[in-house]
Structure formats: structure tokens, C-alpha cells
């Protein structure tokens, strides 16, 4: 009769009862969410529904109706009138000019703050100012530029008094296309700084070090590494600036009134004006603006996603 096997003295005794199992809380299903989570984001959905989705649907329906509420395509056909097309063209030119200038200047400012080896206090100061200035628009911004670059504005008077230079003798006017573009740059440049700074932070130091180790110059680094990585972010940000300028109405109306025929002012005149009053044509104008800004924002979202994939 063989002896029964003895437990290994060097290992744990399999017959000894283990200690109490650690207590664990209820297992949360990662695929679901509690009602508190949805309650936290409910204000966002309510706001989007009341101030974005429903007004957009209302405008789209009104663009295809007449004053009696009947279906018609007259409003869409009137969008191709010379005056309306001219308004769209001027709005596009102002938006392109302010977006281009804002994108270039804002990108240079952001690059100087992120990679320019400037004092440490400059970047937070620039970002704070950009956060405030990018939201400074409307009547206060128009008044500020009239007080600065108007016929009796501070800069105009100082240049004429101490430099002998009369700004308005060159044909410049704050109420013109150039004046509105310069005014838009005040909030376009800070907005570009806020948008492009994360992309500049995404440029890894290892990429520059690898280029230096391989004997590459700074120009080669930006040509073959930096610009290809930043280009989608830069172009997407420029599209966002275009949409931002194309939809701006308060600043343009407070600054130029009806002297500059752009789409937001023409839309305002059609809906609220006393002489030009065709509410449904105003809805059609708004629908055209929604299409233009929607395409711009769609391009920005696509380019942003592409830029994030490139940085990964």
C-alpha cells in the first residue's frame, strides 16, 4: 500500500482555507450611463434645440413659403438678383480678407508665444487677452474703432498733428470695405491664436531633434515636418474664421449701418426694415448663409480630424 502524497512544504497549503475575499462595490456597466449623467448634459441639448435646431428648421420652412404660408420658390429665385448676389460677394470678400489676415497674423503670434523662446509670462498673457478679445464684438467694438480710426479718432488726430499724415486723404474710411475688414481683424486674430496654439503644442520636440541629428536645417524641418503637420489645422482654422466673419452682423451694422451692402445687413433690412420688408426673402437669405457657414464648418471639422490623426 503506497503512502498518500504529502503537500509540498515550500508552497501554499491547498487545503488551508483562503482569507476573506476583498469586498468589491457594484459593477458599473461601462456601456450605460446614469440619469445624472444625462441630466448634466441636458442644458446643452435644450439650448441647442431651442436656439439652433428649431430656428434653423423654421428658417428653412419659411424660405419656401410666401406671406400667406403657401409653398413657393420665388424667394430662392430672388437670391439670384444682382443686388443680393452683390451682397453675398461683398460678404465673401470681407470674410476671406479678414480670415486670411487673421489666420496669418494669429499663427505668427501663436508660434512666437509657443516656440519663440520668449519670456514665460508672454504666453499666458497672450492667451488671456485672446480669450477676451475674441468675444469682443458688436456695438462696443464698432464704437472703439470709430473712436480710434474715425475722422476725429485718436489715431487719426495724432497722425495728422504729429506726423502730418491725413489718413482720410488717402481715401480710407472706417465705413468702407477696408475699415470693416480691419475691425473684424480685432477678433479674428485672437480667435486664430486660441485655435492654432494646441496644434503648435502638438509638434513634438523629438521630431525637431531627429531632424537636427540627421543634419537637417530649420527650413527643412518646417518644409518637410512642421508645415505638413500644421497645414490641416491652419486651413481648418482659416475656414472657421471665414464662417465667423460671414455670420457677423452686430459689428457691421453698428459700424457701417446701411452704407455697406453685405448679407447680414440686407437680411436685417428684409426682416426688420420699414422699406425693404420681405420676411420670407430674409429667411431665404438666412438659408444661404447657413449653407455657406455650414460648408465652412464642415470643412473645419474634417480638417481638424485629419490633423489629429496626423499628430497621432
TrEMBL record:
GO biological process: transmembrane transport
UniProt keyword terms in alphabetical order: Cell membrane, Membrane, Transmembrane, Transmembrane helix, Transport
Chief location category: membrane
ABC transmembrane type-1 domain: residues covered: 88-302
Protein name: ABC transmembrane type-1 domain-containing protein
Organism: Paraburkholderia caffeinitolerans
Residues passing through the membrane, by range: 35-64, 85-114, 167-187, 224-243, 250-271, 283-303
Similarity comment: family membership: Belongs to the binding-protein-dependent transport system permease family. CysTW subfamily.
Matching Gene3D superfamilies: MetI-like
Subcellular location: Cell membrane
Keyword Ribosomal protein attached: no
Domain of life: Bacteria
Alphabetized PROSITE patterns for the sequence: ABC_TM1
Keyword Iron-sulfur annotated: no
Membrane topology of the entry: Multi-pass membrane protein
Cellular component GO terms, alphabetical: plasma membrane
Annotated PANTHER family: INNER MEMBRANE ABC TRANSPORTER PERMEASE PROTEIN YDCU-RELATED, INNER MEMBRANE ABC TRANSPORTER PERMEASE PROTEIN YDCU-RELATED-RELATED
Residue ranges of the region described as Disordered: 1-26
